[in-house]
Amino acid sequence: MPSKVQSPRSHKYLHGEYQTFKKSVEEWTGKTINDEDLNRGIDILNKNRRLLKKIYELRRSDKPPITGLEAMEIVVSSQFVDKREHTKLLSETLKELEEYTPDKETGVRLMKIGSEDDDRDFLKMVESLGATFVTDDHCTGSRYFWNETKNGDDQLAAIATRYIERPACPSKDWPERTRIPHILDLAKQYNVQGVILAQQKFCDPHELDFPSIAKSLKEQDIPSMQLEFDVTVPAGQFQTRVEAFLEMIREEELF
Amino acid sequence: MIKVVLLDDRKTVAKSNILSGFDQNASVESALNTAMQQIGIIKSEITNIAATGVARKVIYLQPPINANIETAEVLADIKGAIDIHPSARVVIDVGAEEGKAVRCDEKGKVIDFVSNERCAAGAGVFIEAMSRALEIDVQDFGALALQSQKTIPMNSQCTVFAESEVISLLHSNITKEDIARSVNDAIAGRVASMTRRIGLENDLVLVGGMAKNVGYVDAMKRTLQTDVIVLPEPEFIGAYGAALTAAEYQQK
Amino acid sequence: MEIAAKYPTERLKCWGKAKEIRKKYYEDYMNAHDSGGLRMVGGAWSFSAIPSGLGDDIFSLTGEPYGANISFNKDFSIKCLEAAEKHGYARTLCAYMRNYWGSILLDKYCLTDGTIVDGFPKPDFIWQDHICCSHAKWYQVVSELEGGIPQFCIDVSVGPYNELNENRLNYVVSQMNDGIEWLQKVTGRDYDDDKLIEAVNNECRSTSLWAEICVLNKAVPAPLDEKTIYALYVLGTILKHSKVVADFYEEVRDEVKDRVNRGIAAVPNESIRVMTDTQPPWGFLKIFRYLEKFGGISVGSLYTFALIGAWEDKEDGTWGPRTTPQQQGIEIKTREQALRILADWNLSKPEWQHFYSHEYKSEMMLRIAREWKLDGVLLHYNRGCEGLTLGIAENRLAIQKAGIPVLAFEGNMGDEREFDEIRTTRQIDTFMENLRKR
Q1: B157/A235 Cβ within 8 A
Q2: Under CATH, what is the fold of the domain C196-437?
Q3: Rounded to whole angstroms, how far apart are CA atoms A147 and A94?
Q4: I need a surface site. Which of A236, B104, C133, C269 has the fewest CB within 10 A?
């Protein structure tokens, strides 16, 4: 995968790599992959992505039908499970959610930004303090499924395009910062009142982006707070800080 | 802690162990005097003096002790341990302020070593701090831990924060035995983790003051999933090994 | 327990000139505008030969060496690091980067003798390549801190050299071509292909010569010790494409060859030969002098040999300098040819290969241990550079498995707060005492 996705040269490079990769997979499995197979594969993944996005879109409402924790579990599980199985569950869930209004108060609408996110305890804790995560920009969250592979004559080229154009990982977001407009747009669409920047310790690319993201959010009058995550997390201290952050936002809303 | 071991013909004839004061030289002198008085000798009767440990440079070639040999602690540990227990291959030495592990081959040649002198949570001071928090005697800590059957995982990586975590646990009505066991498990986890870096090979031998804590020994067995040998009077093994070096120097 | 001297020793004659070249480099960058020249910034691996095509008055400030220069000056370094942290950058990030940003934030420039002058000389353009997660982003931040500076960065993530194919080479070369178009646009200057060709030839020559110099250190006693090697090697990181450095390395090679012929040692009581790895803790180079107490000498490292050296397998199976195009009788005639050679030459860099597999690095390290006749290895678990410490724990195991004693010490090449001098000294005491016993 090229890192300079912003270069017009990256597509040809990635396309070439996929051709080599396809041959390797064929050799390794002893099967050929033809156009029909590729189309089928693209379709399976696109379906899953589309449904995940539909579920996310439900969270734009005043009363999102799922919590941030539930959304995280839905997306992360798609990364472990056969996509076809997962799509089936998604369709059923989507039907349910379209009729469903939660009892829980939404409270403060938060967005979470970071690298990988699987910390259930943290999300649970925050969402028990009168807040709900309504969206995210995480490697294992929205970035994972946000765009689909578009139709094309050359399927490998189409897949390459999808990966080049997806919402960028910070290690691929240079020299321009395309993540900023994307994040600001998400914040607007989901009516976000506050952002938690979840800095995973030792994930350099994200650590390199946070100061710039925090600055851009500030310029848009969106409050943000940064927490450093590691293998173990000081739960008590995090709660104190999040509580203070939420209180601050609620006070702002009063004005 | 300063330990002195006196050998005559490679046999231990006197030992002493005292808390080091601000003036390390004076403390060593005092420890040496105590040991010498046990067998009624004076300093000029000692042929060689080997220095090992954190502050060995304080007495190596320095008056009044004028130790004429110096050797690294882990090398002294191996030497002492192998002499008493020839099938020792990994020696784990946890004292008040440090934890070390060293591995040797069947000839006693050192293959690798690892140490922690940076983190209190991996040394004896951790137990001292937790004993204070539980309001019990340090000597009783190990026995108390053995009365427990379960471990409550501790979150705090830092000794200071662990103290307040212990207090919270007490307030949540967790028993002192269970907490003591968790503390021993926590320190054993760190020491075992450090030791794995040099590789585990039987026989695993525990030395240093910490080895007198039966709860820690039990925790080490469980964490390493293997039996461990605790040498008698474990806190003296390093000094004993250095003394052997002094004895051999004479024979050259 | 001091070890007596057993070899004759002499100071390195070319030492003074090395210092001069380096001093002038930093001054030239600062004073570039005085002569109508341009200021360029970027990394040590960033195809610096290419902007040479814009003229002889392109003066550069190379990121990593400047970061190291700051680190060497501990007082200034800590101020820089704190400035970067205050600005919101985590302590776990590349230490060179944080020192560099700090210099900009404080608006101060550090010269080679430790003089801190007011005003960080603002660059005119950024010419970089992306060798690690930090590299392109480093200068993205630099551009922001300086209010916006044109930036071009070449992506070189095309896999290890032994798997290079046309598609991958093309990706790099086509970006180089795009880069040249970009340089012309941004500077308003015409591009001179002859200057590019000359720069590429210089680079091949200087990097091949560097490998030759390193090979000479196989001799017992070693004519150079690693602390000295750093002072010479740095020139290859900043000006490998220049005639000055290519010519200088020839001088160094000749002097070192002469030292070998006469049995002149860098360390007169040499009795234990070791190598290190990754950048050293720049603020504590005295640990190399400390080794000498035990008759220990570090004869180099994969880092000093292979970061600017160009290597290949020689006919006798040993590792030696890569034969340059000129030595093969190849005359570079076109831009395309120059760029392809430059790309291929750089992608073969041994220090680059381990990014793809720790096994490549272990192989190379064991090779050095054998051919340079080593007794032990010192590994710097360098928290300041994730790229070069990638896989180092595996390297340690591989070297130990081969029967060579290894000491791993923790530190940070550019953040003195993370290097414990006393602790490391004690570890070295134990390690060297143990090596002597063997």
Answers
A1: no
A2: Rossmann fold (3.40.50)
A3: 19
A4: A236
Q: Which residues pair with B10 in a beta bridge?
A: none
Q: Is residue B81 part of a domain?
A: no
Beta bridge partners of B229: B205
- What gap in Å lies between CA C250 and CA A54, rounded to an integer? 66
User: Cα–Cα distance between B114 and B102 in angstroms, integer?
Assistant: 6
User: For chain C, how far is it from start to end, CA to CA, in angstroms?
Assistant: 16
Taking a contact as any Cβ pair under 8 Å apart, which residues of chain B between 193 and 222 contact chain A? Answer: none
Regarding whether B218 and B101 lie in a shared domain, the answer is: yes
| Chains touching chain A, criterion 3+ CB pairs below 8 Å | B, C
Decide if C417 touches B, using CB distance below 8 A.
no
Quickly tell me which residue has 């004292």 as its tokens.
B95
What is the rounded CA–CA span in Å between residue B152 and residue B178?
Answer: 7
pLDDT at B166 over 90: no
pLDDT digits (tens, 9 = 90+) for B93-125: 999 888 999 999 998 888 888 888 778 888 888
CATH numbers and ranges of domains, chain A: 10-253 (3.40.50.11900)
Task: Based on the fold, state whether residues B7 and B131 are members of the same structural domain.
Answer: no
pLDDT classification of C359: cutoffs 50, 70, 90: very high
Chains that touch B (3 or more CB pairs under 8 A): A, C
Domain shared by B243 and B157, yes or no: no
C69-117: pLDDT as tens digits: 999 999 999 999 999 999 999 999 999 999 999 999 999 999 999 999 9
Checking ipTM against 0.85, whether it exceeds it is yes
Under 8 Å between Cβ of C339 and C177: yes
CATH topology of domain C16-191: Rossmann fold (3.40.50)
pTM across the whole model? 0.89
By CA distance, what is C129's nearest residue in A? Answer: A4
Q: Which residues in C lie closer than 8 A to residue B110 (C-beta atoms)? A: 434, 437
* Domain membership of residue B41 as a residue range: 2-72+239-251
